[in-house]
Hints:
The complex is a heterodimer of chains A (334) and B (529). With 334 residues, chain A is mostly helical. Chain A has helices at residues 2-29, 34-38, 46-55, 62-74, 88-123, 128-142, 145-159, 182-187, 192-229, 232-239, 244-282, 287-297, 300-328. In chain A, helix 10 crosses helix 11 (244-282), helix 11 runs parallel beside helix 12 (287-297) and helix 12 runs antiparallel to helix 13. Chain B is an alpha+beta fold. Chain B is built from 17 helices and 20 strands. In chain B, the strands form five sheets. In chain B, strands 12, 13, 14, 15, 16, 17 and 18 form a seven-stranded mixed β-sheet that branches. The longest helix of chain B has 18 residues, at 474-491. Chains A and B meet through helix 2, helix 5, helix 7, helix 11 and helix 12 of A and helix 1, helix 4, strand 8, strand 10 and helix 8 of B.
Amino acid sequence: MLRFLLSRVTLIVPTFMAVTLASFLLIHAVPGDPIEVRVGEHGIAPERLAMLRHQFGLDQPLWKQFLDYEAQLAHGDLGLSVVTHASVWDEFLTLFPATIELAACALIFAILVGLPLGVIAAVRRGTAFDYGLMGVSVTGASMPIFWWGLMVILVFSVALGWTPVSGRIGDMFYIEPWSGFMLIDSWYSDDKGAFKSVVQHLILPTIVLGTVPLATIARMTRSSMLEVLGEDFIRTARAKGLSPGRVVVVHALRNALIPVVTVIGLQMGGLMGGAILTETIFAWPGIGHWLVEAIQRRDYPVLQGGTLLIAVLVMAVNLGVDVTYGFLNPRIRR
Amino acid sequence: MFKKSLAGALALAGLLATGATAKTLVYCAEGSPENFNPMINTTGTTFNANRPIYNRLVEFKPGTTEVGPGLAESWDVSADGLTFTFHLRHNGKWQSNKNFKPTRGFTANDVIFSFERQWKDSNPYHKVSGGGYDYFADMSMPELLSSIDKVDDYTVRFVLKKPQAPFLANLAMDFATIQSAEYADVLMKMGKPELIDQEPIGTGPYEFVQYVRDATIRFKAFAGYWGNAPKVDTLVYSINKDPAVRLAKLRANECQISFGPLPADLPSIKADKNLALISQSGLNIGYLAFNNLKEPFTNQKVRLAINMAIDKKAILDAVYQGAGQPAKNLIPPTLWSYNNAVEDFKYDPEAAKKLLAEAGFPNGFETDLWAMPVQRPYNPDARRIGELMQADLAKVGIKTKIVSYEWGEYRKRVQNSEHGMALLGWTGDNGDPDNFFVPLAGCASARVGGGSASKWCNKEFEAIVQKAAEVTDPAERTKLYEQAQVIMHREAPFYLIAHSVVFVPMRATVKNFKLSPLGSFEFMNVDID
């Protein structure tokens, strides 16, 4: 198990390097730099432009800027935002809990709903439920998040008035952030109205962000279950007279879960991408929102640092998945 | 930590218990402020977020571009126009927070600190928060200022190097915000000078309470405010980038006033009985500039011909879709000295052809038409406008090639006079006509490498505009600028397209919200039923 872990961890270093280089090159391929983007119709005096460029190190050749950045990273320093002059790491830490909270809720929602639906569809293969569910899940997986988000807002918030339109908590609540997780902070605020408001605000973004993983998980569970349900040992279990529920849940599901866990882990990358759009629609103050703004302002340190931290996170989750996978399936540990 | 949140909850409960009639106003803002200091930022979003907190020496009267008293109750200008003496109010008070309890009110020291921070390298705060004072530089303050002196605690004297009437309007701009010198000292001693721009202390109607990045900014009415107490006790900016979502929030009454809606949503807003919509032309101008340094645009008849050959109404209908007002002067109608007597050119291709023939181009000519690659407040789609113009000009025999570059490159090349005709525009800064006429049509910026896209330098026009910058009497200045507009119309150095129209939707229960011609949002006088 240790060797397995080590081999996985050594892979992380080159991946990390590749991500830094790729994000650096992509960002610099976009025309305009942070100074030029800031200049409006006024134009800027050449001396002033040169001074500001120099201040941010933008007057250096690209390879030098990259090496300087790597050196800075090696010291654990992600730099300062060009726009707010705050440390990228601090900004990330302030905003990250919001993203995690949303992504975790979306993932839990996707698993809690997707898994049972997939199992039922597999057990009732060929029925109207199965066809209906698979049809809906294709739609769900291919729906643009932007459109879907606006639709649920228009229906549930504007037309029906059941849920708030956007934000993390009602504007009347004044919560001092402590953990950064609104569910926790509002629970301890002793104002149960605040907690309720947080939950209400979570509903729509959770559904919107959770839709794609839900559809994927449901489909994966179904096909994996179908495969397992056709195996000899299931027939044996049935022949032994085990109850159908026990056969499905204990014998089939546990084995069918292996590819599903992988898929769930892989959703993490997708969730981060989806979070960027979902956060923009629901004015959710997380890192997605932060990065979109940074692109528009060509805030290089934020973009590079943010991309890196997300990459690290996705790598960590993938590692976790690999480990879980090994745990679920002892054969691949060797 | 738990104790802290408990205290917060208790404070909130207390607030709710005592303030049964406490009013809250939520404004759906379009973005997050870069921080809480308008000196170092240039975006309207940041200015709007700071306006409840701070004051300036002089301020724009609500809903106008006229300059009135702020922290200065009155001022005198010397006969030579070089010395401005400001008499400060005695009742200005500073707000407080967990790090700062003021021991004194607002004085001349605060004025000196706030300007020296931006002006002088030697000021300990000059480099704090990045230290880029873009607007201070853009408004040529370093070149203009000779000295700023404290005469006594409540009198400050600004001496200029040359007479400059618009200087007063500059001081009403957001960058000229007054910060507390005492707060600066306290933070410097704590070793946390950067907090001055993150946990702001001002003299304005609202105190800063909390900022949750990309989510909300909270303010509460400041009891020590020197002016009339604000009508609303709690002011919240709820930040949302998406205009469709902002509108949804407004419809759900989650906010009561919202930043600009999508043009496509305007009819449904107007039809909604619960909502009100106000509009005003923005302080901007979108135009097609002729390069007056190049043939054939040196010929006045050619410029006039093009002015008659392009169908303005078609452009407004197709591209601005109701969010634009046709322009006949370089300055918008909301700006003082706007000359309404000027009559716009009629769309008349036949007359245009005749003029071209008289100018020596009976079969037209070939030239390039530059269209910028980005959307700007004054021009929602330059490419599309360029195509419409191209079609109209072809009808009178002028063949054009549409040219575009990346935005930074585009501006640089236009400055360097590489274009024949170029689409561009301007957004006003200080509500002074000088701020339009001089940078866009003044002789100083008409050289190759200068800021003007028209490269137009007309002696008669220049003399009038220069004089208007030096006299301080508003009535006289108005007359001069009106005259300047007549000359500009006669000479036609631009094809003027439109001033964009700013729309602000709000709940019907909102009272006294005044749209500023400068595009700023102010809630000081706003009330809600």
